[in-house]
Amino acid sequence: MTQMLSPSGHRALPLLDSDVLRTFVTIAESGSFTRAAQQVFRTPSALSMQIKRLEETLGQPLFVREARQVRLTPEGEMLLGYGRRLLKLNEEAVTQFLAPALEGRVGFGTTDDVGTRILPGVLAQFARSHPAVHVDVVVGNSASMLQRLDDGELDLILITAGNPGQELRGEIVHSEPLVWVGREGGVAVQRSPLPVALAHQGCAWRSMALDALDRAGIGYRIAYTCEHSAGQEAAMLADLVVSPYPRSLIRAPLRRIEQDRLPPLGDYQIALVKRSDLSEAGDALAGHVVGAFGETHH
């Protein structure tokens, strides 16, 4: 830890050392001083001393030490979030000055539900890290994105995995429950046959929803069809329909329909698919995308 004097001459708050933070995060993620020591090439006793000084500096216990593992205290959980962000910001700052400047163009395709969720943050961060790289974004359905990737028009794409007739490709970067959603206080869910909003044929959400309704013997009618989740959202806001929707995209006045009203849908997955000859700039953008989804798990 480093302490400095403030302009008024009083002792300022201590600065957190990035090396100690990296040690702390490694121990927290591995659950063991021994495993963490192997990863950072230091002895467990050296790591223990670092953590002891960190706890003394912050005045809080960070780990509960058990027979075969360690676990975080509530204060440790809080510091873990700060530590990850500080290390990431430190890496970004150093990269800005020391890493060779990347240039070029990257064609990036995404489905609109994914784009709504993570794209603004990813593109803003990538632009700060690699200002000389131009990213051209295309939004469309999974089938068209795959075709444009194969035709060489796009470099990497985010698509929904498991669409009917679609081969499994790429790396699964996200999985979450698909749930039934309607307007808060709405009556669409009470109607018979059940009015639903779906994407066109070939969408995993559509097949998951119809299969679930058929298995449960619930009568339905497809009252609204739209490729874009924003269109389905508009129909739900008007209380015309209910719709299968990712849990993370639910915003008031929409709400998740009680689980005993309609059959469960299961999880859906998002895959990142890249060209085999992806450029260094494309690889860098792919890393930002994977990292953005990783943060949603913490």
From TrEMBL:
Domain HTH lysR-type: 16-73
Record keywords, A-Z: DNA-binding, Transcription, Transcription regulation
A Pfam short name: LysR_substrate
GO MF, any single term: DNA binding
Keyword Chloroplast: no
Family: Belongs to the LysR transcriptional regulatory family.
Name of this protein: LysR family transcriptional regulator
Species assigned in the record: Halomonas salipaludis
